[in-house]
Design a protein that fits this description.
Layout (H helix, E strand, L loop, with lengths): L1 E4 L5 H7 L4 E4 L2 E4 L3 H14 L6 E6 L6 E6 L4 E6 L2 E6 L5
Antiparallel strand pairs: 1-3, 1-4, 2-3, 4-5, 6-7
Length: 95
């Protein structure tokens, strides 16, 4: 399974994503594609989207912790790895 959350995707990329994914909400894509296809789709996304797309991609994998997270662009969501576990840190709106 792959879940893609973006702030803004180029129209061509968004249209192509609809070949493999359902879009239950604007710029949120979910698909049960196979691992080999998922890696190609993720590579396509990172090659085709500008940095301001704010991509957050989560993929199910077959070893613990059973998911992998990729991020690009949005400084509000920082991905960190602690003891092999990927976590998403989000800044609070307070100064």
């Amino acid at each position: 399974m792959v879940v893609v959350i973006a702030n803004n995707l180029p129209p061509a990329v968004r249209g192509r994503m609809k070949l493999w994914f359902v879009e239950p909400r604007a710029n949120v894509f979910v698909s049960g594609i196979k691992d080999s296809v998922a890696e190609g789709v993720i590579k396509y996304l990172f090659e085709s989207c500008p940095a301001n797309s704010g991509l957050l991609v989560m993929q199910r994998i077959n070893k613990a912790p059973y998911y992998k997270i990729w991020g690009m662009g949005d400084p509000k969501h920082r991905i960190a790895e602690i003891d092999g576990l990927q976590l998403i840190f989000e800044k609070l709106g307070m100064d």
